[in-house]
Amino acid sequence: MEHKAGFVNIVGNPNVGKSTLMNDLVGERISIITSKAQTTRHRIMGIVNTPEYQIVFSDTPGVLAPKYKLQESMLQFSEGALKDADILLYVTDVVEDPSKNADFLAKVAQETIPVLLVINKIDLVKEQSELEAIVEKWKALLPNAEVFPTSAKEHFNVDNLMNRIVELLPVSAPYFGKDALTDKPARFFVTEIIREKILLLYDKEIPYSVEVIVEKFEEKENSIHIMAVIYCERDSQKGIIIGHKGEKIKKVGIEARKDIEKFFGKSVFLEMFVKVEPNWRNRENKLKSFGYIE
């Protein structure tokens, strides 16, 4: 039997469950998941290997009209995902208005590659007739797509989706080593875990105006020493992040350390600092140094 391999790109609007689906398909917690929109800022690859095939999944930022340079680069990651896929997973859910981001949807409708339309969160639907109406509505918008009603959270119908992806994969040699789980370095996952904790522990603008950079990642046999800097845009934000007597940042550190230890299977010594970098989301040189612009 010939070996199959291909790129499966996951696209859609914010908050429809793209990251949850990707983690379910890959079987590892690769994309951070929180209930806040715009959690994913980069394209993140998760790789599934068996002796017969290699699937390179790619989770992209949710599509949205950009308000600042950072969001422009996020939209480019999503639009780029239409260009280099073998299979496209367009993810929506049972509550989303299909007319949202109609121009991006129109681009998806013109695709010649296989498009699998995943209608997620069907555990929220009470009546079968309601689900049928939702499916019909989407079929009219993406007539060439195959429809998969799923619940990524409940792992419902995800195996059927996976089987269909494997069927559609082109015959090809693997693109990455067979032991690879992702194309991202270890430091990247540290920054994502810390960023997830910031998303969960702070409100309003704070999570969107911070960036986390790992300045030191020293790995020994049983332990890792990590030094991370949390950049924010204003002194007032720095005060909020640190909190009264450092209580808030300490909580971020405790929560993040637990997950980092779980991810790497080693004990972790984590140091964190907060620095102000005014208006970094609109400064090209900063976006370059933070890895958003090539």
Task: Write up this protein.
This protein is of the alpha/beta class and 294 residues long. Helices cover 36% and strands 23% of the residues. The chain contains nine helices and nine strands. The strands form two sheets. The protein has a six-stranded mixed beta sheet with strand order 2-3-1-4-5-6, with helices on both faces. A three-stranded mixed beta sheet has the order 7-8-9. Strand 2 and strand 3 form a beta hairpin. Helix 6 crosses helix 8. About 2% of the residues have low confidence.
Map the helices and strands.
Layout: E1 4-12, H1 18-26, E2 44-49, E3 53-59, H2 69-83, E4 87-93, H3 102-109, E5 115-120, H4 128-141, E6 146-149, H5 158-168, H6 186-201, E7 211-219, E8 223-232, H7 235-242, H8 247-264, E9 267-276, H9 284-289
Parallel strand pairs: 1-3, 1-4, 4-5, 5-6, 8-9
Antiparallel strand pairs: 2-3, 7-8
Helix content: 25-40%
Shape label = globular
Could you name the ranges where pLDDT drops below 50 across 5 or more consecutive residues? 33-38
Characterize the biggest β-sheet. 6 strands, mixed
- Taken as a percent bin, the fraction of beta residues is 15-25%
Radius of gyration: 20 Å
Give the strand order of the largest sheet, numbering strands 1, 2, ... along the chain: 2-3-1-4-5-6
Cα-to-Cα separation, first versus last residue: 39 Å
Mean pLDDT: 84
- The helix/strand series, from N terminus to C terminus, equals EHEEHEHEHEHHEEHHEH
Helix segment count? Answer: 9
Structural class: alpha/beta
Count of strand segments: 9
